[in-house]
Amino acid sequence: MMANLLVKETNRAAEFPEKERRGSFQKNLPQQPNHNDHKDGKKLMDKEMVIQALKDSFIKLDPRKMVKNPIMFVVEIGFIITLILSFAPNAFGNSGVEPWFNYTVSLILLFTVLFANFAEAIAEGRGKAQADSLKKSKQEITANLLKGNGKTEKISSTSLKKGDVVMVSQGEMIPGDGEVIEGLASVDESAITGESAPVIKEAGGDFNSVTGGTRVVSDQIKVRITSNSGESFLDRMISLVEGAERQKTPNEIALNTVLTSLTLIFMIVVVTLPFFTNYLGFALEIPILIALLVCLIPTTIGGLLSAIGIAGMDRVTQFNVLAMSGKAVEAAGDINTIILDKTGTITFGNRMASNFIPVSDASQEELHYWTGISSLNDETPEGRSTIELLKEKGSKLNASEAAGGQIIEFKAETRMSGMDLRDGRRVRKGAVDSVKDWVIAQGGTIPADLDEEANEIAREGGTPLAVAVDSRIFGLIYLKDTVKPGMKERFDQLRQMGIKTIMATGDNPLTAATIAKEAGVDEFIAECKPEDKIEVIKYEQSQGKLVAMTGDGTNDAPALAQADVGLAMNSGTTAAKEAANMVDLDSNPTKIIEVVSIGKQLLMTRGALTTFSIANDIAKYFAIIPAMFMLAIPEMTALNIMGLSTPLSAILSALIFNAIIIPMLIPLAMKGIAYKPMSSNALLSRNLTIYGLGGVLVPFIGIKLIDMAVSLFI
Ligand SMILES: Nc1ncnc2c1ncn2[C@@H]1O[C@H](COP(=O)(O)OP(=O)(O)OP(=O)(O)O)[C@@H](O)[C@H]1O
Ligand SMILES: [K+]
Ligand SMILES: [Mg+2]
């Protein structure tokens, strides 16, 4: 309900004149991500990976491993039985089948299993290679641990504990994951992100998190360590790309259950078949029954299913996004709504003070004075840039007035920061509506020109902060921010995919409307507190929608956890990164579009190959069933509608086709089906036509061709 009240159509923003705003204050520009840098860089597979995958295909033959894939396990059992028959043709009763047929069937079945194992192994290969290179960047680092007496002691990074405080200076490696609690530095994070331009890390605000193993390239920072050694981001990253934590997703389990049940039904059919044929007076040989069973069961999808899932996760990683689970990637494919925060996501997030505007009868000097006191200890970018602007304007900062007072840190809940002075006076600055409420609660009145001045700033897309002492408001700070370029095109793309975008911001409605319009989001919600962001997500979820959220701030963390897909920016706070189920190493919020596409592609690829696999099997019946009966009753040649040379050749051809279709589809399973933004109905009918119809036709042609080749030998 709440969301309903708050959601405003962006169209309303049309009332406000559009304004060209191009700041020259983009000193934090390195935060701007580099699109798609990692997309084309890597080859699908290289020689070493192929050799490793070939070895793994044999290792995976271990029945204890095979049993996890019931379809291929059945094929493996078929291989073992025909192998026994090759050496002892009468092991299971008298047989009229020639030994060469047993060998051949057994060999084809072995290859069928190996091909399926190869598909999985090659899909796992890239993650393993990446994990190896990450492990190389993991090393012991000397940390300057800060002691109680203010001195530092050199210790090994491996003995660092959560809560320790370390100093890191220019040229040094950051010894562990942590948060900057003092200072500002530029940090080279290329070891983790692959992006060579250094990023600014600073205390307070949303850019304070640092990762172990990255290097400070300028200045010095004081860092509070947030993770014990062995539980770091790099450790998590390694085990993720290595696939050590890969679990089957609910969708995958459901599909597996269906396919296994199908396999079981076909097994019952094939096992009971001899009873009927015996009754009718002819016998079916064991290797022929096994060949029939293997053709009936969905081996194509059974062999490729796990590779499809692994490759999907891997594609996300290639985009420099770390997905904590395959489930999150799949959920991304079904997303209906995306919630984004404004500051740092849609805008650059380096909100900087650009002007001071006194209200009522307050003077510039008075406003400067109280603004200074409200910001002296405000370690956020907003606070620091306010102090910088005051210095620029030549106003003196009176630190003694503030001395001994109590610092009121900025909180997303109160949307204010400031000081309680020793003499009892209380100084605040913050969101205009919050400061107004605060002043009214103390019996103050609101200056008549305040709203007008504040709206003027907001209409330009800026953020006004009101400055007040007790019951009196002195004026406004004008904070500027810039919308990142290319936002409109990205949101248009999402609209084509049928996805609604909502900007949820702590900022005021007018600023929100201006930025929403400039960026081209569908809806916006202003004056959001952290719990409001969760409410919006819950509301959408209660409407049956799957919701994705991108964010970077600590105030976004609860919402990131509530969302079905939570994508945190690597530049963001530790809290945000821990709550999310994906982290974008490039800190590019519009990356959610790629993640959604990859998720859709994963679901589509799995659906299409399942369709293909089942359609495929149907075509095989036409080859193998007539052949089987013709073997028993030679007069039934009329059944040979495909005109295959001999019954045995028909059976072998169907089996060979069944085996080689698996490696032929590996590239498709790995790369995924190309996804173009279109409605899901159009997509479904398109895929059914291609993969359903294709699945029936391809085997007819394939088996016929193989039969022509096979007939040269038998
Ligand atoms: N250092 C600060 N001191 C006082 N008030 C602040 C400070 N920083 C921000 N504010 C005010 O608090 C509001 C909420 O800030 P918050 O960081 O929660 O959300 P936001 O960054 O504006 O929006 P988003 O959720 O899109 O990132 C801001 O719009 C601003 O009015
Ligand atoms: K099959
Ligand atoms: Mg924020």
From TrEMBL:
Keyword Nucleotide-binding belongs to the record: yes
Enzyme's top EC category: translocase
Localization annotation: Cell membrane; Membrane
Pfam families per record: E1-E2_ATPase, Hydrolase
Stated family: Belongs to the cation transport ATPase (P-type) (TC 3.A.3) family. Type IA subfamily.
CDD domains linked: P-type_ATPase_K
Native organism: Jeotgalibacillus campisalis
Designated name of the protein: Potassium-transporting ATPase ATP-binding subunit
